[in-house]
């Protein structure tokens, strides 16, 4: 092992059947570890799996040679258990230079409190996530000290204290937010980011492929048979790849139109669908669900968008009306200078008045649309967050004020826009941040040219959040102690209701209630 430890180390060979005879060059054998490793390999990278066993089968002929430790002595067993526990506490905190790791005294405190509380395995796992959240947010877990010497006589009492700690973690103490300004300008972003471009051989001569490649100089072009060779390979690191994204150009697969998700707002439109001509985003928002969906942080552009247009037209002719979100798994406007897909959508629906599309964005890249005639069935929707949250949690996006400027410019050219406050993030100074944001917004834009307002709190599927936390272990947003409701993690009903009602009341100062969707 590459980690320092105090255990015997050997080669463990796993089998899916009973082994009764000695096998050459095999020392330790095991059946239980076989099933465990096969299952764990599905969910974790292999370097993240460690098998630590107290008992194992040893292929030695003589019985006396099979006994490494005699656990008849309780003290020896307790000592071994302590070593295992101490190792696990240190292991979950690797690397050591992470300021959000638990220090030695905090590890001792956690161990002592856990021994007192007698929590189940599931609650222990959640307990660690809560402590991780507190450590990220406040830099300490001092709240635990009040429970250090408490006597717990039953699991019920332990659970009650656990709930107490959980509720404390949700309190919104007014600590100062560290503001780290990021370079939000798009200039030179793409040439720096895409040092390599992978291209499927079958679309090498596609006109859209050639147009995209013409935008890049001094990049390495690599021919591939299928985009999944790169995008779906094993053991990728989403956030590491975000630091040096690669671009993959691929051919559309069939059936690229999907029914809209229940958790997404349809704005009272019938026949709600979405499509994704691009996978992944040049932006890097801390709360983005894409990091839970895909293991790769690279970007795939399905260049033959005309095939999608054919599918959409067929569906439109069948249904007669259609509401389609086209910027679902990416931000199309952010990458418009590369592929021009937003403009292609504009011309595709120009003569189809009952085919309505939504283009959602955090970009300020709206120059093309300033020179295009506004369409009632082409909705440009801006996702807004308070300035400090955008700077901290929405890397590379246009700043809040630049998004507002983009809205104002579009309105001046006759465009009506949609405003999306989604996801709402519960943070320090929640009321102040969001009320100031809304006040500034309506001091700058024309409220009469706002189509509607969408409000939604952070929500994510259970499986996605698990992957996102593994990928981003320093995220205050992701480690918030959410409630799991029907397989979806979100804020408690009480917190959610408060957040939505507060934002709604702020908007009602400027907008009719009929324009607000929740």
Automatic annotation (TrEMBL):
Keyword Transcription regulation attached: no
InterPro entries, alphabetized: rSAM_sf, SPL
A GO-annotated cellular component: endospore-forming forespore
Keyword Coiled coil appears in the UniProt entry: yes
Keywords carried by this UniProt record: Coiled coil, Lyase
Domain of life: Bacteria
Protein name (record): Spore photoproduct lyase
Origin species: Fusobacterium vincentii ATCC 49256
Lineage: Bacteria, Fusobacteriati, Fusobacteriota, Fusobacteriia, Fusobacteriales
């Amino acid at each position: 092992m590459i980690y320092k430890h105090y255990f015997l180390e050997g080669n463990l060979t796993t089998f899916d059947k009973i082994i009764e005879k000695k096998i050459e060059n095999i020392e330790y054998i095991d059946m239980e570890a076989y099933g465990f490793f096969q299952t764990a390999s599905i969910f974790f990278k292999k370097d993240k799996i460690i098998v630590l066993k107290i008992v194992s089968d040893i292929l030695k002929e003589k019985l006396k040679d099979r006994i490494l430790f005699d656990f008849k002595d309780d003290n020896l067993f307790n000592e071994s258990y302590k070593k295992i526990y101490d190792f696990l506490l240190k292991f979950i905190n690797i690397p050591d230079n992470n300021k959000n790791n638990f220090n030695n005294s905090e590890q001792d405190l956690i161990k002592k409190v856990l021994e007192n509380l007698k929590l189940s395995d599931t609650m222990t796992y959640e307990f660690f996530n809560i402590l991780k959240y507190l450590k990220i947010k406040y830099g300490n877990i001092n709240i635990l000290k009040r429970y250090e010497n408490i006597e717990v006589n039953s699991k019920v009492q332990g659970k009650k204290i656990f709930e107490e700690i959980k509720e404390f973690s949700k309190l919104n103490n007014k600590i100062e937010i560290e503001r780290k300004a990021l370079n939000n300008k798009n200039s030179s972003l793409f040439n720096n980011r895409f040092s390599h471009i992978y291209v499927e051989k079958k679309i090498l001569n596609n006109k859209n492929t050639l147009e995209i490649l013409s935008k890049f100089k001094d990049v390495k072009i690599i021919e591939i048979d299928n985009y999944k060779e790169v995008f779906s390979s094993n053991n990728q690191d989403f956030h590491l790849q975000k630091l040096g994204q690669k671009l993959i150009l691929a051919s559309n697969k069939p059936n690229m139109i999907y029914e809209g998700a229940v958790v997404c707002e349809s704005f009272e439109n019938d026949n709600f669908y979405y499509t994704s001509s691009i996978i992944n985003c040049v932006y890097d928002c801390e709360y983005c669900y894409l990091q839970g969906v895909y293991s790769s942080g690279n970007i795939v552009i399905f260049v033959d968008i005309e095939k999608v247009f054919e599918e959409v037209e067929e569906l439109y002719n069948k249904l007669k009306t259609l509401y389609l979100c086209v910027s679902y798994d990416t931000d199309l406007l952010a990458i418009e200078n590369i592929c021009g897909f937003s403009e292609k959508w504009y011309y595709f629906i120009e003569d189809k008045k009952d085919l309505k599309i939504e283009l959602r964005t955090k970009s300020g890249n709206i120059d093309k649309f300033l020179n295009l005639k506004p369409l009632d069935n082409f909705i440009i929707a801006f996702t807004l967050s308070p300035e400090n949250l955008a700077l901290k949690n929405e890397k590379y996006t246009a700043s809040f004020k630049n998004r507002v400027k983009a809205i104002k410019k579009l309105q001046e050219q006759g465009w009506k826009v949609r405003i999306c406050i989604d996801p709402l993030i519960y943070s320090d100074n929640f009321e102040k941040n969001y009320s100031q944001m809304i006040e500034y917004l309506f001091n700058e834009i024309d409220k009469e040219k706002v189509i509607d307002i969408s409000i939604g709190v952070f929500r994510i599927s259970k499986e996605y959040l698990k992957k996102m936390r593994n990928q981003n272990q320093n995220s205050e947003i992701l480690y918030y102690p959410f409630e799991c409701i029907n397989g979806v993690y979100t804020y408690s009903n009480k917190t959610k209701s408060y957040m939505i009602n507060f934002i709604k009341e702020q908007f009602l100062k400027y907008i009719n209630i009929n324009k607000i969707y929740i």
